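Incident log entry.

Two folding requests arrived from the same account within the same minute. Monitoring flagged them as a possible duplicate submission, but the sequences differ. Recording both here for audit purposes.

Request one:
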Amino acid sequence: DITALKPQERVRHGMGFVPQTNNVFTSLTVEENLEMGAFIRRDDFSDTMAQVFDLFPVLKEKRSQLAGELSGGQRQQVAVGRALMTRPEVLMLDETTAGVSPIVMDELFDRVIEVARTGIAILMVEQNAKQALNIADKGYVLVQGRNRYTDTGAALIANPDVRKAFLGG
C-alpha cells in the first residue's frame, strides 16, 4: 500500500510520474530539469542522462535552453525524461499527448513504446484512446469513474461497444 507514502518515498519505491500540466521547471534549463529527476539518487547518473538524450535527441541539442522556452511537445519530453532519471519500475503518464500536434503525439507514443521495451511498466491515462489502445498490452475503459471494460488493447479496439462509444464508430 503506497497511499500513506510521501511522493519522494513513492519515487524510492520505483514509481515515476509525469503530470499533465505544470510538469517542467520553466526557469531551469533542460539539463537542470533532468538533474532534478535524479534528486534521490546518490550514484553517478550520467549514464541515465545519456539514455534520456538518446531517447529524446532534441533535448541534448537544447540541454542549455530554459525549459520555459520549449514547445509543448519538447516540454513533455523533458517531463518524461525527468521521470526516467529516477530509474522507475513503473512510469505513470497523465495525458502526455494533451495539447501537442499530431506529429509530436506520434513521436511521444513511439518513445513510450521504446521505454516499455526496456522493461519499465507504463500506466497511461490518455485522451487519444485509439492510439493508447494500439500500444497497450492491457486497457481499461472508464465510464463515469468506474471501470467498464478491461481487455487487451487489441480486443478493446475490436469491441463494437467500445468502438461506438469511445473510438468514433
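Request two (distinct sequence, not a duplicate):
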Amino acid sequence: MSGLPPGERQPGGRRRGARRSHAQSILRDLRRAVAVRGRRLLQRGRSRVAPSRRHGRGSRRRRRGGLRSVRDMRGRLLWLTEHYPPGKGGMAVSCARLVRGLRKRGPVPVDLLALAGAGGPEVSERPADGGLDIWVRREKSPEVAPNLAWSVVRERHAAEPYRGVVAFGASGAGLVAATFGSWLNAPCVVLVRGNDLDRDWFLPRRGAWVREALARAASIGAVSTEKAERIARLYPGKPVVWTPNGVDPRRWELLPADERQRDEIRRMLGADSRRIVGLFGELKFKKRIPFWLEAVRDAGLLPRLGLVVAGQLDEDTSRILDDPAIAPRSVRFPFLPQSELPALYAACDFIALPSAFEGMPNVLLEAAACGAVPLVSDAGAMRDVVEDGVTGFVFRAEDRDAAGEATRRALESGNEDLAAMSAAVRAMIRERFSPEREIDVLTDLLRQAGV
C-alpha cells in the first residue's frame, strides 16, 4: 500500500506496515460509508421518479421529431457488448450506465447481449427492468459465443422483432452486431470507444473486424471529437456523431465519512507541504505512468508531490512505485467500487492521465466532479474536457519535457488559482457532460439511424 521500500521510516517514525494498516483502515471506513451513500441515493431516486420518467413510456411530452406512433414504438433494441459488470474497468462502467439510461428513457425495451465472462453456463437469461440481460460465455475460440448468441437472438426476433442493433465497441462486439443487424434486416449503430480505433484498427485480425463493423453501420458514435473526425474521413458520407460520456455530480457528493477519509489520506501523504496527485483505473501500458514519473523526476519535482493510486497496476509500474529514487510517496488501493471512490478523488489536488492514446476516461469526469483538477495529455477526449490553464493542465502526449513542465505549472499554482480552476471544471462537467445529455445524444443517434 505504500511507495516506500520495506523498513523505511515514514514521517513520525512509522514503518511501511503502519501505513498499510492505515490504508486498510481507510478501506474499512469507506465500505461502512457505502451503506449510508446507498440509502441517500435511494431516497433521492424515489423523490425523482416522476421527472426521471418524463420521456419514458406513456409520456405525452413532445420531443424533437414529434411523437412517435404506436406502430413506431413496437419491437425491441438489441445491445451487444464485450464489457459489462461484474467485469471491471471503464468500458464496463460506461456500458452499464448507457443501458440503464436507455431503459429508463424508453420507449422500447433494451435487450443486453453480453459476450463476456469465462465461468457459469454457456447461455443465461435474466429479466431486467426495461429489457432482458442475455449472457453468452466467451470461449477461447471466438466463433463459439457468436453462434450461440445468434440462436438466442433469432428465436427472440421471431417472437418480437428487433428494430435495431447497437454495438458497444467496434471490434468484437461491432463485428457481431453488424452481422446480426444484416441477418435481422435491422439498422446497426456502432459506438467507437477508444481502443477499437486507436489500437485494434492497426492489428491484422481485429482491424478487419473494426473495418467490417464501421462499413456496415447505419450510423457511428465516437467518444471523442478527434475520433469522430478521423472516422468521418475514413467513411465519407456516413453519419458520425460525437457521443461523450456523462457523469452525475450528485453521485459524487461527499458524505461526512468521505470527508474524514479524505483528510486522513492527505495527512498520510503530507499534503501540508506537497500537492496530491491521483492515478486511477486500469493503469496499463497506454496510460504511461512510467513515462510521466520519469518526466516528474527529470523536472526535479518528486519531493513536491504525493500519489493516491487506486486500480490495477502492471508489474513494471508497481516496481517503479516501490522505488523512492524514481517515484514519490504513495498510498495504494486495489480496484474499488464507485461508491468507495469519492473520498479518494477528493483527497487529490490533481487527477493525472498521461495516456499515449485514450477514449474518454470515466475517472477524468468523476475526479473532476469531486474537485480534482485534470493534469492530462492531449490524447482522445481529454482535449474535449480540459482547456489548458482554465479547467486543467494539458501537454502533448509524446513530449516528456512538456509533461514535466505542465506538472511544474500545476504544482506551482496558488491555492486561490487552484480553487478557481476546480470550480470551473466542476461547472463545465455539470453543463456539458450530464447523464441526461449523454442519453439525449445517443437517442438522437439511434433515431438518425432509423432505429
